[in-house]
Specification:
The protein has 14 helices and 7 strands. The chain is of the alpha/beta class. Strands 2-3-6-1-7 form a 5-stranded parallel β-sheet.
Length: 339
């Protein structure tokens, strides 16, 4: 068997409404990094289910790469030329999520100045990915179940059934069976979604993939920012292998990016496991006073400390910092360039 180049990448860019462009020239295997037995099992399950139309439920902790698995299922399927439409359910309030998913008619609610297609319709011929499915309200659970049963959608404010042709992939970071037992999730919807479950292992269960992932992220950040290739000293790699990585692959990605920022101009990177959830702002301010930082360094260190606190989740970091994600990306790129 040919060697696989694995990597669980994370993508924090805001997705436009509707279809995302299909990557050109790079197969789904080239974007999934992992030679561990646990990841080989995930690859086998992707290949097995991709040709089918059955719903897939991806289960895994935050930061493990569930969206990447969903994209791989789409790209390995006969629907690969169709749209891949991701929806982060927890990021939208109930009313907005309902309108986004099912669409609405003109005048169906305040602000509905025109009829609009929902994301079920946008995903026609392709795949709809519902992330954090456990967070949807009981009312939306009922409507989702009906769409899955009827293969038709009714826009908000309309009783007309519109046939839809889509493949559903859902993801959750909690056990839905437990949510069903607690009365927070419909049992009938759970069985509709969990026809083919795939569990994405946390990084602590696939430690042999850590060197591959770290090397991948290091090369990517160096290439993106025009830097010379950096090395990972054996002692640094040993600390990475010993660390528990509660934030999983996303935390590792953030740690490597931070290391590139802090070691710009050197030939190697360093890594020290964080204590607790990372340095709190008061500790940053105390260091700033003691070491007489200028404002530019204070801003840089505070931004990096917030990223540490949220385990590298850039969307959350941007919200805490009160800036948009593009501004955060721009600042990080400037730090990597030595700015």
């Amino acid at each position: 068997m040919a060697a696989r180049m694995p990597v669980f990448e994370t993508d924090e860019r805001a997705a436009p409404r509707g279809a995302l462009p299909r990557p050109v020239g790079v197969g789904w295997r080239e974007r999934i990094v992992g030679r561990s037995p646990a990841m080989e099992r995930v690859l086998e399950l992707i290949e097995r289910v991709a040709p089918l139309r059955v719903p897939v439920l991806i289960v895994g902790e935050t930061g493990t790469g569930k969206e990447l698995v969903a994209r791989a299922i789409h790209e390995a399927s006969p629907r690969a030329r169709g749209p891949f439409v991701p929806v982060h359910c927890a990021a939208l309030p109930e009313g907005l999520l309902e309108s986004e998913l099912f669409g609405h008619t003109r005048g169906s609610f305040t602000g509905a100045v025109a009829t609009r297609r929902g994301l079920f319709e946008e995903a026609a011929g392709g795949t709809l990915f519902l992330d954090e499915i456990s967070t949807i309200s009981p009312a939306i659970q009922v409507k989702l179940l009906r769409v899955l049963q009827d293969r038709a959608v009714r826009r908000v404010g309309s009783n007309q059934a519109i046939p839809v042709d889509f493949r559903l992939v859902a993801a959750t970071n909690v056990e839905l069976a437990g949510e069903v037992a607690a009365g927070r999730f419909r049992e009938d919807l759970y069985y509709r979604l969990a026809v083919f479950p795939i569990r994405v292992p946390p990084l602590r269960e696939r430690r042999s993939d850590i060197p591959l992932l770290a090397r991948h992220f290091l090369d990517r950040f160096a290439e993106e920012n025009g830097l010379e290739p950096l090395e990972i000293p054996p002692a640094v790699l040993r600390r990475m292998l010993e660390y528990s990585w509660p934030g999983n692959v996303r935390e590792l990605e953030n740690a490597v990016e931070r290391a590139v920022v802090l070691n710009a101009g050197l030939r190697w990177i360093s890594f020290e496991p964080p204590a607790g959830n990372g340095p709190a702002p008061p500790a940053v301010l105390e260091r700033a006073r003691q070491e007489r930082w200028d404002l530019a360094r204070l801003e840089r260190e505070y931004i990096l400390s917030v990223l540490d606190e949220v385990r590298g989740h850039r969307g959350r970091a941007a919200r805490i910092l009160g800036i948009d994600r593009r501004t955060l990306y721009r600042k990080l790129k400037g730090y990597l360039a030595g700015g």
